[in-house]
């Protein structure tokens, strides 16, 4: 299923893939935000079983982008990648003395959104206007600003958003 949200994004969806959500998310977290060619190399070299179905969905999304948007593979970036939980298949395993145990086989839905960066004009969004965000302010202007908008440089902005100087991951 393919839908163009705006004229630069296309997605591909793989449904009912027989795999746990946690195992697929481990791989999806590695490819989110990377370029298409880099993603294919990562997926080929990672040793997880989840890589092959994700590889197929990424390849399908790129084929959709090239057919619908006419984009080049070098300009594609994975803008959004998510794994949702699908239906759980319930099966019975026969045991001794006529008993049976229930087996749950989880499934997942993988969605990959690919964006063509050659078509779109990439602009970063800040909570202040960019021209005001990077200009040097005098001490009088700094005293007027209160609250969370007090940071004027990009480094201070990132440090404020991350909660400190170290990374929380």
From TrEMBL:
One matching Pfam family: Ribosomal_L22
Assigned keywords, A-Z: Plastid, Ribonucleoprotein, Ribosomal protein, RNA-binding, rRNA-binding
SUPFAM superfamilies linked: Ribosomal protein L22
GO cellular component, one term: plastid
InterPro entries given in the database record: Ribosomal_uL22, Ribosomal_uL22_bac/chlpt-type, Ribosomal_uL22_bac/org-type, Ribosomal_uL22_CS, Ribosomal_uL22_sf
Compartment(s): Plastid
Gene Ontology molecular function: any one: rRNA binding
Biological process per Gene Ontology, one example term: translation
Family: Belongs to the universal ribosomal protein uL22 family.
HAMAP family per UniProt: Ribosomal_uL22_B
Assembly information from the UniProt record: Part of the 50S ribosomal subunit.
Database matches in NCBIfam families: rplV_bact (TIGR01044)
Chain's role: This protein binds specifically to 23S rRNA.
PANTHER family to which the protein is assigned, alphabetical: CHLOROPLAST 50S RIBOSOMAL PROTEIN L22-RELATED, LARGE RIBOSOMAL SUBUNIT PROTEIN UL22M
Name of the protein described by the UniProt record: Large ribosomal subunit protein uL22c
Organism: Solenopsis bivonae
């Amino acid at each position: 299923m393919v839908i163009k949200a705006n004229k630069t994004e296309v997605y591909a969806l793989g449904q009912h893939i027989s795999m746990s959500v946690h195992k697929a998310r481990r791989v999806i977290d590695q490819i989110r935000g990377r370029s298409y060619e880099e993603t294919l190399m990562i997926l080929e070299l990672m040793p997880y079983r989840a890589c092959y179905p994700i590889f197929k969905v990424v390849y399908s999304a790129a084929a959709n982008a090239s057919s619908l948007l006419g984009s080049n593979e070098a300009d594609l970036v994975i803008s959004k990648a998510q794994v949702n939980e699908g239906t759980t298949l319930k099966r019975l395993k026969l045991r001794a003395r006529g008993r049976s145990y229930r087996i749950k086989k989880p499934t997942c839905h993988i969605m990959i959104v690919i964006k063509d960066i050659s078509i779109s004009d990439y602009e970063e969004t800040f909570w202040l206007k960019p021209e005001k965000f990077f200009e040097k302010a005098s001490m009088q202007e700094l005293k007027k600003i209160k609250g969370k908008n007090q940071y004027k440089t990009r480094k201070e902005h990132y440090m404020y958003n991350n909660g400190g100087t170290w990374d929380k991951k």
